[in-house]
Amino acid sequence: MSDNDDLRKYSSQVVDGVEAAPARAMLRAVGFTDEDFKKPQIGIASTWAMVTPCNMHIDKLAVEAEKGANAAGAKGVIFNTITISDGIANGTEGMKYSLVSREVIADSIEVVAGCEGFDGLVAVGGCDKNMPGCLIGMARLNRPSIFVYGGTIKPGAGRTDIISVFEAVGQHARGDISEIQVKQIEEVAIPGPGSCGGMYTANTMASAIEALGMSLPGSSAQDAISSDKASDCFRAGEQVMELLKRDIKPRDIMTKKAFENAIRVVIALAGSTNAVLHLLAMANAVDVELTLDDFVRLGKVTPVVADLRPSGKYMMSELVAIGGIQPLMKRMLAAGMLHGDVLTVTGKTLAENLESVIDYPADQDVILPFDQPIKKDSHLVVLNGNLSPTGAVAKITGKEGLRFEGKARVYHGEEDALAGILSGEVQAGDVIVIRYEGPKGGPGMREMLSPTSAVMGKGLGKEVALITDGRFSGGSHGFVVGHITPEAFDGGPIALIENGDTITIDAETRQITLDVCDADLAERKLRWQRPQSKYKRGVLAKYARTVSSASEGAVTDKYL
């Protein structure tokens, strides 16, 4: 009997005994030896692909994780799941597949690991939906698991990044820069591998997952191409073996307290609104009751202290250079903002992980003191009111103001809205309404990065607001409100707005109001007809039929 037999709960069912000879024969062909059959098997889920710079290097990182697992006495087995690129697809019909890919990634990890009998998992993700997709898949399986972030990209020349390119399009439409200047920014903004370089969704989710306890300390704040990132992968492979020995699984780590830690770190970092969707979905996967009310409750007592793009000055690589998020978390723990007693993938508590962390350099101004915050409470503002009875999510740092009142300019879909912005149809004082972009109505809940970037490029960032039942990229900024529920496809009030209606958005009272009386809204509802979706088959049709509301995380297995 092998010393590892107790650790082979799943793989032993696949490879032990005479009856498993066919399985062993197949595995010999991919490199297994007699000794490997006696070892725990660690699945290494790689999101490598050449469709995006965010993931183009992850094949090499997966190999490092495999080496770590093997060094610890396990048998690492690399397999792939998919990735898509929001940065490439934004503004197109293809973007409808983006949020859907989160579910496909989760499903594929669950399918492969469940079928192959892996005893533990390491997942390496690099783009927005990879991270929550990996976590959801690991959480469903509930086998010892660690997530590794692929790392952030280096800045482009002139401190440019992908958002610089999106906003250049708007600057060109305004007449501020030439087409040649747009091309010059395009050519230098993405210098190599790694995820988009501000506190956009990828870096937001990496930080949230580290705060949740599902990544090794420091994983969220490392350059994609660095010895630190390679070491992070190797150590993750090693550490899964330790989790196996101690029988520490995702549900032991992903508790309500851990999610509260993740929410508060996201707020402190001025992270993406997508974190709301993804954290709700991840909590659903482990049966933790997390709602929009938790974001409201924690948001009232958590300041924004990170001066990071898109609304701030600094890039993620500059946060990496001063120590990442660990010193911030240590400050937050000392201030009573985090639960220190939660378990993490190190096998230690969060407080134990932070004991030896050194504070930031005295001369840095990337992370501000708690008594001198950028905003005294959360920038992720959950709004209710007659326009969004079940909740909407705004990203309001205060730099764009805290209240906006204007006249509705309504568009059915992102493309029409973008054309209206670039052509000059949208004017100062307008509230741009983009509807039928929700999870069901899109289907797929596209990000409105192209319209919000065009607004900023046109110089209208403080002059207009934008509301949608779609969502926003982590790179979006300005006076924007997304995730409006019920969505237009379900006949929510956003479907009933008409051009010229007065809309008021108040971040202090947390209200979003349509100045139309109940009787008129009821009459409009009687005249409203749900539009027909052009997607009758395939993944988008299946998604539309199974997806829950954005206020519940837009998950596809909530009611199954």
Topology, pairings included?
Blueprint: H1 11-15, H2 21-29, E1 41-46, H3 58-71, E2 75-80, H4 86-89, H5 98-116, E3 120-125, H6 130-141, E4 145-149, H7 162-174, H8 179-188, H9 201-212, H10 227-246, H11 250-253, H12 256-268, H13 274-285, H14 292-299, H15 316-321, H16 326-334, H17 350-354, E5 380-383, E6 392-395, E7 403-412, H18 414-423, E8 430-435, H19 449-457, E9 465-468, E10 479-482, E11 502-506, E12 511-514, H20 518-527, H21 538-546
Parallel strand pairs: 1-2, 1-3, 3-4, 7-8, 8-9, 9-10
Antiparallel strand pairs: 5-6, 6-10, 7-11, 11-12
Helix pairs in contact: 3-10, 5-6, 6-13, 7-8, 7-19, 9-12, 9-13, 12-13, 12-14, 18-19
The percentage of residues in β strands lies in 5-15%
Q: What is the total tally of β strands?
A: 12
CATH superfamily of the largest domain: Response regulator
Summing up helix and strand content along with how strands pair, one would put the structural category as alpha/beta
Give the helix tally: 21
Distance between the termini: 41 Å
Low-confidence stretches: none
Radius of gyration: 23 Å
How many domain regions?
Answer: 3
| Assigned CATH architecture of the largest domain | 3-Layer(aba) Sandwich
Spatial arrangement of strands, main beta sheet: 5-6-10-9-8-7-11-12
Helix content: 25-40%
- Average pLDDT for all residues: 96
What CATH calls the topology of the largest domain is: Rossmann fold
Q: What gross morphology would you assign? A: globular
Largest β-sheet summary? 8 strands, mixed
CATH level 1 class label of the largest domain: Alpha Beta
